[in-house]
Amino acid sequence: MSTAQQSPKGSTNGGGVPKQRKSRGRGLRTTTGCTVCRKRHMKCDEVKPVCGPCGKGNRACIYGKLPPDSSSASDAGFSTTENVPVSVSTAPAPAPGPKLLPQRPSFSTTTSEPRLHSQSQRWPPTPGLPAMTPDDNLQITSPQSNYSNSTGYGTEVAPLRWFGLLAGDAANGTLDLPTLDTLGNAALAQRYQLQPDGTPAHDISTPRPTPATFGDGVALQNPSKLLQISAISPVPPNGAIGSVDERHYWQAAESVQLKGHEHDVFRHFVTSISLWIDLFDPLKHFSTFVPHLALRNEGLMKAILALGARHLSIKPLNSGEANMDRTAAVQYYYETLQYLQSAMRFTSYKNSLELLATVLVVSTYEMIDGAGKGWERHLKGVFWIQRSREINGESGGLEQAIWWAWLRQDVWAAFRERRRCFSFFKPTKPYQVMDIWDMASKIVYLLAQAVNYASDEEKSGGERDLTNRILRANTLLNMLDEWRNSISIHFEPLPVEGPANRPFRPLWVNPPVFGTSMQMYCMARILLLIHQPAAGGYLEYLGRDKVIQDCVDSIGGIALKLTDDASRLMSTQCLFAAGLYCADPEKRQCIAELITDHSMHTGWPSNTDLAEELQVEWSKQKPG
């Protein structure tokens, strides 16, 4: 660390007797440390881009001057109390002037509409924000554990941390991306300098002059280096402070114009892929509401096109057609990251529904893409954003729909990685006031608890306290029984005639999503019974095995009659779990065939063959 220019009064003079050294607070201050450490009166080691104290405390590290507003420290997510989540207080939105964007009733009436900053000084004046470049140290441990008394990021910092994970993996090549020469030039980077009407520069006939700090040294050699270009804060017209609603810089005044094949890709998302996300959502937000948000937000639209194009590269729109080139999907993905990097400067964007929707669409893209291990890590970043905004399964509206869709993704990732799920939210709504869709969603939460119980972390802890581990399993089994006894007749199978030569008796539940709920219920029971220590010895194991095989039969029987891809995707996961604990050779073969059939319809998973994985596991169980 650099030393002060003048020797402090407590230092030695010449060869004399050393004087008593004064406290660090009085005599050893420097002015070269980061702004956060100086404001917190802490010693800064001046490491860039993130100093040691800020990195250890999971705080944003900013060198230079903070905005002059007295609340700037809290706005950046800083807090002197590190064991509680940081909240961000924003100024009330200014009254819209005559030149502002027209209000959109379908969007602005949402109770979760973000609050706006009224002063442009709050826009970051320098590109020194944390986690905005792939050069940053992105080996971040979670800022909080799975328990509610741990620390989380503030609303200003959480989106940046999530974006940092994406940008770092993209820049380091962990996404297994092909070379994109079309992205390797400075011109594309300039396209995504947002204009005051929220439109990227490439949609404007007269190019916007490039700032000097942006134009120097940005001749890019590969697409990953695009993410190293920091955003430049816009200057309000005529220098008038507060004269422009900052939403104009990331929200388009007119609808985004699609070109050529983009219409087909967009339609494919709206009519097909969005239903995967909307599985248990009665309002179908991602097929009815989110597409309208995307028409006024370039970043969300690019994310949707990336997801749609990637799925079409796996499974063509019509049988016999050639697959779409994956390169197109990757290009949309990079353009989404480019937009995010520019729009992340604005507090109103970081608190918007558009960002939340983009985050979930990007996560779904990565789940389908299957390249590298980034998706599993990025789910943690999604959790940071939701926790910073106190979003959970009872938030209502689009926020609630996004939370449940994210939890379903995290449950599968946690099951595969044998870890706990990130969320610690506990639903509070009693069964008496739940509708059938609430009940369908509740089983996702119960399955998450079963996945937690089966995790390596809890198994390791249970070895030291078998009594409590047995009691915890019994508690969760009782919760499953309570759910099963509370659900309505909508979840019961209807009469159906099925082939007599199949090892599973067909079970037809209509609508199919409720059949998927029953599969998840059975999967949760299997995990608990498999991993709960047996106090009753061999006889207890025999009784459990009967229940487990009944659950396997239910999962297989329901899978036989599923007809929609959204349900097939979740069914694939339940079939895989059932297959791990199925001993009957004929049922094993049927499970493998069902997984293959589901994958042919959905195109998921694209990076592994789950049926083949089961075959490998079964071969290990053969007596040798």
Automatic annotation (TrEMBL):
<dbReference type="GO" id="GO:0008270">
    <property type="term" value="F:zinc ion binding"/>
</dbReference>
<feature type="compositionally biased region" description="Polar residues">
    <location>
        <begin position="1"/>
        <end position="11"/>
    </location>
</feature>
<dbReference type="GO" id="GO:0045944">
    <property type="term" value="P:positive regulation of transcription by RNA polymerase II"/>
</dbReference>
<dbReference type="GO" id="GO:0005634">
    <property type="term" value="C:nucleus"/>
</dbReference>
<feature type="region of interest" description="Disordered">
    <location>
        <begin position="85"/>
        <end position="151"/>
    </location>
</feature>
<dbReference type="InterPro" id="IPR036864">
    <property type="entry name" value="Zn2-C6_fun-type_DNA-bd_sf"/>
</dbReference>
<feature type="region of interest" description="Disordered">
    <location>
        <begin position="1"/>
        <end position="31"/>
    </location>
</feature>
<dbReference type="Pfam" id="PF00172">
    <property type="entry name" value="Zn_clus"/>
</dbReference>
<feature type="compositionally biased region" description="Polar residues">
    <location>
        <begin position="136"/>
        <end position="151"/>
    </location>
</feature>
<feature type="compositionally biased region" description="Polar residues">
    <location>
        <begin position="105"/>
        <end position="123"/>
    </location>
</feature>
<dbReference type="Pfam" id="PF11951">
    <property type="entry name" value="Fungal_trans_2"/>
</dbReference>
<dbReference type="InterPro" id="IPR021858">
    <property type="entry name" value="Fun_TF"/>
</dbReference>
<feature type="domain" description="Zn(2)-C6 fungal-type">
    <location>
        <begin position="33"/>
        <end position="63"/>
    </location>
</feature>
<keyword id="KW-0539">Nucleus</keyword>
<dbReference type="GO" id="GO:0000981">
    <property type="term" value="F:DNA-binding transcription factor activity, RNA polymerase II-specific"/>
</dbReference>
<dbReference type="InterPro" id="IPR001138">
    <property type="entry name" value="Zn2Cys6_DnaBD"/>
</dbReference>
<dbReference type="GO" id="GO:0000976">
    <property type="term" value="F:transcription cis-regulatory region binding"/>
</dbReference>
<protein>
    <recommendedName>
        <fullName>Zn(2)-C6 fungal-type domain-containing protein</fullName>
    </recommendedName>
</protein>
